[in-house]
Amino acid sequence: MMDAAIVVGVDGSPTAWSALAWAAEDAERRHLPLRVVHVREPWLAEHPLGASSDEETRTERCDRLLADSAARARELAPGARVSTALVTGAVIERLKTESETADTVVVGSRGRGGFAGLVLGSVGLGLAGYAECPVVVVRRLPRGGGGDIVVGYDGSRWADMALEYAMAQAAARRSRLRVLYGQRYPAMTPHPAGFGPLPVDEVSDIRQRLIAWRDKHPGIDLVASTVREHPVPALAAASREADLVVVGSRGLGGFASAMLGSVSHGILHRSHCPVVVVGALRGRP
What pTM was estimated for this model as a whole? Predict the structure, then answer.
């Protein structure tokens, strides 16, 4: 979608400020608008219980949070086009709605109020599993920048979407793209009868696919490697020197059901840099 905005959810928590910084810099880098959104849940009272009449109302606090967030975004990314929105409703549903027209939705891994427990609870799973655009979860910002973009790849269509997003990030940042592939079947392990077709030469197939990606994007420094361990520790180790880790929302083998199973939970808990979960790219079936 042309000129779609990067949407960042803010609530005043430390990781939300990190998410705002990531989103602002990405918007400036990729020449996209930045939309700063705060979701106000309708069941929260305008005047907290026990508050005095001269204290800020909830609406005033929300407006101040958005104004402060916009000011910080413009300071971090002077070239970004910044707008704000105060929306009312359930957090996950409103962010899903935002995702329908957004380029990306960015959130912190933990928050206050509606964003609390994002990684650990149903809010994060629901957003990353069902958003209509890539979702960036920022636990901490990378140190210094200039690191690799790391993508988990298994040849599935979700992995192809993740790789396409990772390619765009690598091009915008002029970074190296590191592709990690987790082999589904140990080389000497017999294939159990009744569990699908016999294994094929997956590594060779992945290499051929990546050659096609290199030909499509010749200006990107793409380095691929096969990992023979569980993908979570492999991705977590790579994240130590990376600026970004990208995974698909579903997959095959080692990267299967990312965001819906143990891989997604594991990398969100253990990553040392922001994580992108790609479940949909517009224009794709």
Answer: 0.84
